[in-house]
Design a protein that fits this description.
Number of domains of chain D: 1
Largest interface: A-D, 93 and 79 residues
Number of helices of chain A: 7
Shape of chain D: elongated
Largest sheet of chain A: none
Strand content of chain A: under 5%
Number of domains of chain A: 3
Largest sheet of chain D: none
Distance between the termini of chain D: 55 Å
Order of helices and strands of chain A: HHHHHHH
Shape of chain A: globular
Structural class of chain A: mainly alpha
CATH topology of the largest domain in chain A: Four Helix Bundle (Hemerythrin (Met), subunit A)
CATH architecture of chain D: Orthogonal Bundle
Oligomer: heterotetramer
Radius of gyration of chain D: 19 Å
CATH class of the largest domain in chain A: Mainly Alpha
Helix content of chain D: over 70%
Chains: A mainly alpha, B mainly alpha, C mainly alpha, D mainly alpha
CATH topology of chain D: Helix Hairpins
Number of strands of chain D: 0
Helix content of chain A: over 70%
Strand content of chain D: under 5%
Order of helices and strands of chain D: HHHH
């Protein structure tokens, strides 16, 4: 087992670097269009992590929904409001407090994780099962439409999407 | 191959990775290379024949090497990056465009054993990968720092995103019938080709692919005769060539997908044989099917007049999407009620009775699928009839209103400028 | 699958009106007939389903016992394990005797009001929308009734709140209407938030929100009643805190004392709405909730022994007080609907107080009878108003020298044209300008108020059906002995209070206050009846008041649509009482027992509880009280009002009470003024005057000025010795103080990111402290807290040196 | 296999970067992108917990595997899509009425 571990670590490292690095670029890059592209890369990294976690369906959906739809939507919005793309100042006055807050938040989370790891919290040290035998997608589909599980929230989600669709059209429509 | 590498002492993960990589690269580059060599030639030849010309006939036998001449021209042209362009993005965009197309070939089943990677979410994979192509177009248009490019890109993206909707819904139909998203699984489930069971879905898929790949009659994105080139106006040399190649390969890819999803991919007599023979048979079937569909595409592309962008959008949102939604509902309904019972039919076939012998002649799976396919076909025909009636009525109504307008309108309103009435009296 | 199984049928009960709502909103457009068909069809189907369920339930003798409950549920939000009681939220419906009875009453009341609305709203241009809202409301109410858990009940509860808002403000062209709508919505929201906290706490404590799982589980109830709440800091038990939260929710919804102010204003809505929402169903939903949650409210106490829990005492006090308080206001009101509104508040107070002293079945009994007779009264008053408007119109025409015949009407409308009668009731065209409201338009061309009882009188000759049904309703409200439903249910409450009074003085107090309130009830009912129906007409409108033209018979079906529901309701306003007669009652009880009717209501509803409440024996005392208060009130009312015209300034009751009291009461005890004065104005003052002017300018600026001045003086004085040091101090201190002042203002700068930052800092802060408390020793914690306090001050200073806020565009 | 904690740390980092972006960027579109990052971090957490805490005996048997983690991730996708659509519509509406997409300049809601 030890022999293969480093490969996984390598893949994990690359994906993490991709994700975190480009996420940083998203919030740092002054050019908002580049920000959006970095967001794309970051989301791609997360999709890779999903694959590592044996959730290929989610990875595909991530690519489809986020990269194919949401980022394109964002880019559209940037273009539609592009008169302001040449902003000189990307950050507001409270950026450093925000930074400190973010760092402190991270430290708190890391501290909690560390504490839990010290105490050998059973949730954190449990080994994953070897393989899902390719049953993941099928089971996910069943769980979503099983009345005993998530059928109702699933239907509600579709209602939410419809509402969001109509709502955004109404909001963004030019007044007649 | 994986086993062989592991036996050589390789790390199994790396072995898997390398094997997959090799498979994917081989499959993907095959599509690209084959197409650029023969496909382009074919495109020109067919276009020429339709237009009563000769087509390429100078370079090589029958002009076959014309492609290489073109390629040479592309490569040797000056590679310009405009000064105001966003350089990294400008350079990445063509790569993204071509990668989006090429990556689809990774899950394309050439034969039963010949597939780059048989993902369990194959259908979803190619949808999501294809959506990257949209991004390439958008980036190209934006990074060129040219308003024509940007407008072209926005128009192209609007069209691509719109036509993705009916395409995805029509892909759901084979996925639904096969019960899997794996491409090979879909092929294997087609004991009766889906095009016979659900011709409407096949039609919608084909049509939306025309829009998706920007072929006539949906080629307003490119519309060479009307527009400056559109989103790739600032591109030259090999980068322009990459866009061109991406577009050409995409259209063939869509035909191959059509073959896989609706016409049974590599299925055909002898394709199930073990080893190389089966692979060869499967390969041949797959390509002949793809080519037939591709010829259809070229035929349409060279004969049908171009639509306006608003007509194109209306056709998508007001016709294709509702039609395919209704179709999907109907198919889901029928598929739920009539689930093929393979075991029972197989058992009958094994039993040796007369019926069983008849079953064996046609193949038990075929027989088991038959009721569902017939029901689906009937449903499709009914939907088609309904749609036809609606279209007829709407055409009639429109005609009537046009007539009424014409009758009601005073004649002078028809003229460009109202005739000035001569002053009367003083 | 048997669709007509009770388990499935229950799900279907709320669906048809909901579908009708969607269909009307989406499809009906302005088509009145279609919307009527859809709405009435929806409610009829619901009614059929509900009564089918009621019939099935009656056939099941042990409905409500541990094994005898119908219903089914599905997982709403799974937490991975999907069993019952695993903490997963489940949505479901069920049937026990409590909602069994409600299922009889609610759809019936809704149905009758729908029918009534056909006539009443016949000429409103926004007719379709009205029926859509009504349908949505009916659906929500039915959802609330069939719900088997608090969450679904809360969903129905909130949707009803929304409908109430929409319907009160239905004639939103009137300023008073939309203000009343907002008032109702905001007031109930205050209570709902607290209610929601109660729900969350209940779920956190028991892990389920299902009524049966909580209340039919002795261990859960035991632990709820004995666990100290919130770590034992505040004293009461978990059940106590939850109970108080729920009672507060009811106080808002059922318009009890501190939050009662919205209900009288809600009379701005169309009268059917007042009848339906603000009498029969929605405000009853609040009482239904506390009846439903009664086991939790009483957990830890023993009402049968006179041991009351915190929530019960709260209910008893608030309820009894409200009952008397609202009843006393009611007899100074001159608006026919406001009298009824205050009467509703008062009667709800009766129920609340009854629950507070453990009178579970009596409260529910009164809820049902009250729903019938109050709906009757409201619909009757609507009928009167309708007739008065019509009468006003006819009088108007008569005054112009025409006959009151059809011809005259036609002439009048031709003469004045559409402009002068934009949406005249009875002859309305589709009005496109704002005036859809008929009251409104009548007011528009004269100052006449069709709802003012001082303008009425003598109506019994004009509208006999309305009069008789109204009298029945009024008698029931006042508690006319032996015949009316109101008497029996009120008597039941008195009996329970009497019984409780023997064990706990609280019961006695409640008894006395309620008796006084009942006296007031009889009095103001007599006043209303006399003023509206007796005597001679006191205005032209009253003289001409009628529903339709006797000569032309136009609008005859309008009249029928409005009076038919009255007759049905009048029937129930009498008959409903015989379900709860104590078998010990002289003669009558025994006779009924003889034919097999032995207070079936109490026995039936009692089965909803784990331990069925014991039925109190017959006692002569409360009966005497019931008789006494009614007769007293009746006689006094007769003496004061019968055949006496009431003119604005000399209401007999005013002479009777003395001017001071009259003024106090007729101004509703100045509650609203008190709210304005002690809540709204101080807040406005703080934000408008205190902060900017007093603190900023008055204190800080002056302080700064003073400091600066003093420092300058001192500086001048010492400059001779050392200019540099002193100058530094005298500039520095005022600047520092000014910075702090500005920093405090910067806290609210309207920027979303800044607010996000505050909340995040707070979250991190709390999280860090939680970890700290969990890990560190006491001394360290205290030390860190001091540091944190300093850090907060420093942070405040940080926000100071920001740009001064822009002064343009009003106050900052 | 890479342990759960590693994934959680990555998710926490991603979340905090998004947090910083939401707090510090001026452009409303940037803030929206940062929120997307945070949602992705949440998704990563959900999937990681799902992967490491699915009871092993469920996989072998024919019984349904608990899919709560993935299901919730799907719902997060839905919410993210809805949020992006509505958020961007709001930004465009704001741009149309006030000619700006700077979050700070939308500060009239303070009275």
């Amino acid at each position: 087992m030890q022999t293969v571990d480093w490969v996984q670590w390598l893949a994990f490292g690359i994906l993490t670097l991709l994700t975190i690095g480009s996420a940083l670029a998203v919030v740092i890059d002054r050019n908002i269009f580049h920000s959006a592209l970095w967001l794309l890369v970051s989301l791609f990294g997360v999709a890779g992590l999903f694959v590592m976690l044996s959730a290929p369906f989610l990875a595909a959906v991530q690519v489809l929904v986020y990269m194919g739809a949401i980022v394109i939507l964002i880019i559209f919005a940037i273009m539609l409001t592009r008169r302001l793309m040449g902003l000189t100042e990307a950050l507001n006055t409270q950026w450093w407090v925000g930074g400190i807050t973010a760092i402190v938040t991270f430290l708190v989370i890391a501290f909690v994780l560390f504490q839990a790891g010290q105490g050998a919290n059973p949730i954190l040290v449990r080994e994953p099962i070897a393989a899902l035998n390719g049953r993941g997608v099928e089971e996910l589909g069943k769980a979503l439409v099983d009345p005993a599980q998530y059928a109702l929230p699933f239907e509600l989600a579709s209602v939410l999407l419809t509402a969001a669709l109509i709502g955004s059209i109404v909001i963004a429509r030019e007044d007649q | 191959m994986i086993e062989a590498l592991v036996n050589l002492g390789w790390n199994p993960h790396i072995a898997t990775f390398v094997a997959l990589l090799l498979g994917v690269v081989a499959c993907a580059s095959f599509g690209l290379i084959w197409f650029t060599v023969i496909g382009l030639w074919l495109v020109r030849k067919v276009a020429a024949r339709v237009q009563d010309r000769m087509g390429p006939n100078r370079v090589g036998p029958f002009g076959l090497f014309q492609v290489f001449a073109d390629l040479g021209k592309m490569i040797t042209k000056e590679d310009i990056t405009p000064q105001g362009a966003d350089k990294p993005i400008f350079n990445i965009a063509p790569l993204l465009a071509i990668a989006a197309v090429v990556l689809i070939w990774a899950v394309m089943p050439f034969a039963k054993t010949l597939i780059g990677a048989d993902l369990s979410v194959g259908a979803l994979y190619f949808i999501s990968v294809a959506s990257l192509g949209t991004l390439g177009v958008l980036l190209a248009g934006w990074s060129s720092n040219n308003k024509y490019a940007l407008i072209g890109a926005l128009r192209a993206v609007a069209a691509l995103v719109s036509y993705e909707v009916p395409m995805v819904i029509s892909i759901l139909v084979p996925v639904l019938l096969a019960g899997t998203m794996s491409m090979n699984g879909i092929v294997e489930a087609q004991h009766i080709f889906y095009i016979f069971a659900v011709p409407l879905s096949a039609f919608v898929f084909f049509t939306s692919n025309l829009g998706e790949t920007g072929r006539a009659p949906f080629d307003v994105i490119e519309a060479e005769s009307e527009l400056v080139a559109g989103y790739n106006i600032e591109y030259t040399g090999i980068k322009f060539g990459m866009f061109q190649a991406a577009e050409f390969v995409h259209s063939f890819t869509s035909c191959a997908l059509m073959a896989v999803l609706f016409v049974g991919g590599w299925r055909g007599p002898g394709a199930e044989l073990p080893g190389l023979a089966g692979a060869l048979f499967g390969f041949i079937y797959f390509f002949s099917k793809s080519m037939v569909i591709y010829m259809l595409l070229l035929w349409i592309g060279n004969t049908v007049p171009r639509l306006r962008i608003d007509q194109m959008m209306a056709f998508n949102w007001k016709f294709l999407v509702p039609l395919q939604l209704v179709n999907l509902l109907a198919v889901a309904f029928v598929a739920k009620i009539l689930q093929p019972n393979y075991e029972a039919v197989r058992a009958t076939a094994e039993s040796g009775s007369t019926l069983g012998n008849i079953y064996r002649v046609f193949g038990p799976e075929f027989i088991a699928d038959l009721p569902r396919a017939i029901a689906l076909l009937i449903v499709n025909v009914i939907i088609l009839g309904g749609v036809g009636l609606m279209i007829r009525n709407s055409i009639r109504k429109e005609r009537a209103s046009v007539e009424a307008n014409r009758a009601a309108r005073p004649p002078y309103l028809g003229r460009r400028t109202p005739v000035e009435q001569p002053a009367v009296g003083d | 699958m048997n669709w007509f199984d009770v388990n499935n049928l229950l799900w279907l009960i709320p669906i048809p009106p909901l579908l009708a709502f969607a269909a009307i909103i989406l499809g009906a457009g302005r088509n009145k007939t279609l919307s009527h068909v859809l709405a009435i069809g929806g409610i009829i189907i619901s009614l059929l389903f509900a009564w089918l369920v009621v019939a099935r339930g009656l056939a099941f003798p042990h409905l409500g016992h541990a094994d005898g409950v119908f219903g089914s549920s599905i997982t709403w939000l799974s937490n991975g394990t999907n069993g019952v009681g695993s903490g997963a939220l489940r949505m479901g419906v069920f049937l026990d005797p409590l909602n069994h009875v409600m299922l009889f009453m609610v759809p019936l009341a809704c149905f009758l009001i729908f029918i009534y609305s056909l006539g009443y709203m016949a000429h409103d241009p926004r007719n379709t929308r009205f029926f859509a809202y009504l349908s949505l409301f009916a659906s929500a109410m039915l959802t609330l009734v069939v719900a088997d858990n608090l969450l679904l009940l809360f969903v129905g509860w909130e949707v009803m709140g929304l409908c109430s808002y929409l319907l009160i403000g239905f004639w939103f062209e009137k300023e008073s209407a939309y203000k009343a709508a907002i008032k109702a919505f905001m007031t109930t929201r205050v209570a709902d938030v607290i209610f929601m906290i109660g729900i969350a706490y209940l779920w956190a404590t028991t892990g389920t929100l299902n009524f049966r799982e909580i209340m039919f589980n002795a261990t859960t109830m035991q632990s709820l009643g004995s666990t100290p709440a919130l770590g034992g800091i505040f004293g009461p038990t978990a059940a106590g805190v939850i109970g108080i939260c729920i009672v507060v929710g009811t106080i808002g919804k059922s318009a009890q004392f501190p939050l009662h102010i919205w209900l009288p204003d809600a009379m701005e809505g169309p009268t059917p709405v007042s009848a339906m929402i603000h009498a029969a169903t929605m405000v009853s939903a609040g009482i239904y909730l506390i009846i439903r949650m009664y086991p939790v409210l009483s957990a830890g106490g023993n009402p049968a022994e006179g041991i009351f829990t915190g929530p019960m005492v709260l209910m008893a006090v608030v309820g009894a007080f409200t009952a008397l308080f609202a009843a006393s206001i009611a007899f100074t009101m001159n608006d026919i609907k406001k009298v009824l509104a205050y009467s509703t508040i008062s009667q709800l107070g009766f129920m609340m107080a009854a629950l507070g002293i453990g009178a579970y079945t009596a409260a529910f009994f009164h809820l049902i009878t009250h729903a019938f007779f109050k709906a009757l009264l409201f619909l009757g008053s609507g009928s009167v108003i309708h007739a008065m408007e019509h009468g006003e119109h006819l009088a108007h025409d008569a005054a112009h020298g025409h006959d009151t015949g059809h011809e005259a009407v036609a002439l009048a409308s031709a003469e004045h044209g559409e402009a002068s009668h934009p949406a005249e009731h009875g002859h309305a065209q589709e009005a496109h300008d704002a005036h859809g409201a008929h009251q409104d338009t009548v007011v528009a061309h004269s100052d006449f108020d069709p709802q003012d009882m001082r303008n009425m009188g003598g109506l019994f000759r004009k509208m006999p059906v309305t009069t008789w049904t109204f009298v029945i309703g009024g008698a029931s409200l006042a508690g006319l002995p032996l015949i009316t439903a109101g008497f029996w249910s009120k008597d039941e409450i008195f009996a329970e209070a009497w019984a409780a009074g023997t064990k706990n003085p609280l019961g006695l107090v409640v008894l006395i206050i309620l008796a006084l309130a009942a006296f007031c009830t009889a009095l103001y009912t007599m006043r209303q009846l006399c003023m509206v129906f007796a005597g001679e007409p006191r205005s032209e409108a009253a003289r001409y008041a009628q529903h339709y033209e006797p000569r032309t018979r136009a609008n005859r079906n309008v009249s029928a649509q409005m009076t038919a529901p009255l007759i049905v309701l009048a029937f129930f306003a009498i008959v409903a009482g015989f379900g709860g007669i104590n078998s010990g009652f002289w003669g009558l009880g025994a006779a009924l027992k003889g034919i097999g009717i032995d207070a079936p209501f109490g026995h039936w509803v009692g089965q909803s509880l784990l331990a069925e409440p014991e039925h109190i024996a017959f006692n002569i005392g409360p009966v005497i009280i019931s008789f006494g208060v009614f007769i007293l009130g009746f006689l006094l009312g007769l003496e004061l009002y019968f055949r006496r015209p009431v003119i604005a300034e000399s209401d007999p009751i005013a002479e009777f009470m003395g001017p001071t009291w009259y003024r106090l009461i007729s101004n509703k005890y100045y509650i609203e003024e008190a709210y304005k004065r002690y809540l709204v104005r101080p807040l406005t003052w703080v934000s408008e005057v205190l902060t900017p002017q007093l603190i900023d300018r008055g204190i800080i600026d002056r302080f700064l000025n003073f400091l600066a001045y003093a420092a300058t003086q001192i500086g001048n004085f010492i400059r001779a010795f050392n200019t540099t040091i002193i100058d530094g101090v005298s500039d520095g201190i005022p600047e520092a103080i000014g910075d702090i002042a500005r920093s405090a203002r910067q806290i609210q700068n309207g920027r979303i990111q800044r607010y996000l930052l505050y909340s995040l800092i707070a979250a991190v802060f709390i999280g860090a402290n939680v970890i700290l408390v969990a890990l560190a020793s006491g001394d360290l914690v205290r030390a860190v807290w001091v540091i944190e306090a300093l850090a907060v001050i420093l942070l405040l200073i940080f926000f100071g040196p920001g740009r001064p806020a822009p002064t343009s565009g009003g106050a900052d | 296999m890479v342990p759960l904690t590693a994934f959680l740390i990555v998710a926490a980092l991603l979340f905090c970067i998004g947090l910083y972006g939401a707090l510090a960027r001026r452009n409303a579109v940037s803030i929206l992108m940062s929120v997307e990052l945070m949602l992705n971090a949440v998704n990563l957490n959900l999937v990681a917990f799902w992967r490491f805490n699915t009871p092993a005996q469920d996989v072998g048997s024919g019984l349904p595997i608990g899919m709560s983690g993935q299901v919730f991730a799907v719902f997060v996708f839905v919410v993210a899509a809805a949020e992006a659509a509505v958020g961007l519509a709001l930004i465009i509406a704001m741009y149309r009425s006030r000619q700006t997409v700077i979050a700070e300049s939308a500060d009239t809601l303070k009275f």
